[in-house]
Amino acid sequence: MKQAGFFDVEERLARLSGLGDQLEAFSRTVDFEVFRPDLDKALAYSDGSKGGRPPFDPVLMFKILVIQTLNNLSDERTEYLINDRLSFMRFLGLGLSDRVPDAKTVWLCQKRLTQAGAIEWLFNRFDATLRNAGYFPMSGQILDATLVAAPKQRNPNAEKADLRAGRIPENWQDKPAKLSHKDRHARWTLKFTKAKRQEDGTIPSTDLAIPFVGYKSHISIDRKFRLIRKWKTTDAAASDGARLREGLLDKTNMASAVWADTAYRSKANEDFMEKHGFVSRVHRKKPHLKPMRRHIQRSNAGKSVIRSRVEHVFADQKSQTGMFVRTVGIARATMRIGLANIIYNMRRFLLLERINAAA
Questions:
Q1: Using CA atoms, how far apart are residues 159 and 345, in angstroms rounded to an integer?
Q2: Phi/psi of residue 212, each to 5°?
Q3: Axis crossing angle, helix 118-132 with helix 330-358, rounded to the nearest 10
Q4: Does an H or E element contain 65, and which?
Q5: Burial class (CB in 10 A: 0-12, 13-18, 19+), 7
Q6: Pairing of the two strands 209-222 and 187-192
Q7: What are phi and psi of 70, to 5 degrees?
Q8: What's the pTM value of the predicted model, to 2 decimals?
Q9: Cβ pair 223, 126 in contact under 8 A
Q10: Residue 139 and residue 109: Cα distance in Å, rounded?
Q11: At what angle do helices 103-115 and 58-70 cross, to 10 degrees?
Q12: C-alpha angle 262/264/265, rounded to 5°?
């Protein structure tokens, strides 16, 4: 095997570009330097006056988190693949002889950003970039939520009761190592399958209920560009509808219409939207033990054509980033889901820019 030379590496990178390197497109279109002020504030690295090894560049570390989230990687796998893949090194601006952050450094970066609550700043920073590029929220907004899986916790019933009540189980309190590995915020819920039509054309009256543990990602997207504008993370058992009144609506949207499924239909939500100038396009529920009126069926069908666009967002996120929480606690789950939302907006931004360039 011959020794690789400089031009061999350049030829391989050119080949990767020709095959469509998404990370190269990110570097071309997204200005990662806009995140630097928030990263500097959150990471608060030392200025080096006391000596020691200099810290890694904050923007470099954020780009590593982008790679990690985009490919649904653990910290150890992230370190390995950065050393292994030319496309990752090019995205990070690293050469073959440059030092690569290890798994512990990546973990510490995530920890500092989580403790500082920086994910909200970073999301808003990129949202400002989208607005400066002309992608203002308009034509109304669409709300929905999806479940995000987390590792299952094997706890006795007594400990489960304590966790549901917001208490730390007594036998955990003197075991800090065990406490740090137990997720006290993830909750169990039931996920209902979509009932399929039988051979005779009828639909079963009951669906399958599948136990599910983890968190829930709530989002509001604008109807025109399908960009995520507002988001929130809760445990999996939290109600979808109540989140509408907790800051999930985007008041900067240029149109007042709000689309959502029947989980968001309640008198409290309807009154809230009317009071704050929103126009409800929320699906109406079927009356209990009564057939739904034909005009309501037609109305819901028309709303579904628009509301279904939010399902494409979740499908894209789950196919690209996996949307699986590997960490412990809702703070880190919020960080993970927030990064996935930023990366979705980045990918959507690339698509919108290509469409505009071709027009």
A1: 39
A2: -145, 140
A3: 10
A4: helix 58-70
A5: exposed
A6: antiparallel
A7: -60, -30
A8: 0.90
A9: no
A10: 38
A11: 100
A12: 65
Query: Of the candidates 185, 9, 200, 1, which has an alpha carbon nearest to the alpha carbon of residue 95?
Result: 9
Amino acid at 142: I
d(CA 22, CA 27): 9
Distance CA 223, CA 260 (A): 12
Distance from C-alpha of 328 to C-alpha of 150, rounded to nearest angstrom: 9
Other CB atoms within 10 Å distance of the CB of residue 63: 21
Whether 126 and 342 have beta carbons less than 8 Å apart is answered as yes
Q: Which H or E run contains 229?
A: strand 228-235
Q: What percent of the chain has pLDDT over 70?
A: 92
Distance CA 253, CA 335 (A): 25
Both structure tokens of 43: 């990471």
Report how many helices (DSSP H) and strands (DSSP E) the chain contains, helices first. Answer: 14, 6
What torsion, rounded to 10 degrees, do the Cα atoms 151, 157, 158, 160 define?
30
In whole angstroms, give the CA distance from residue 86 to residue 100: 13
Q: Is the dihedral of CA 318, 321, 325, 326 positive or negative?
A: positive
**Residue pointed to by tokens 């039988």:** 198
One-letter amino acid for residue 159 of the chain: E
How high is the pLDDT of residue 157?
84
Question: What are the per-10-residue average pLDDT scores of the chain (359 residues)?
Answer: 62 86 92 96 76 84 96 94 93 92 95 95 97 95 95 83 82 81 86 67 67 93 97 94 95 96 95 96 89 91 94 93 87 95 96 91
How close are the terminal C-alpha atoms of the chain, in Å?
48
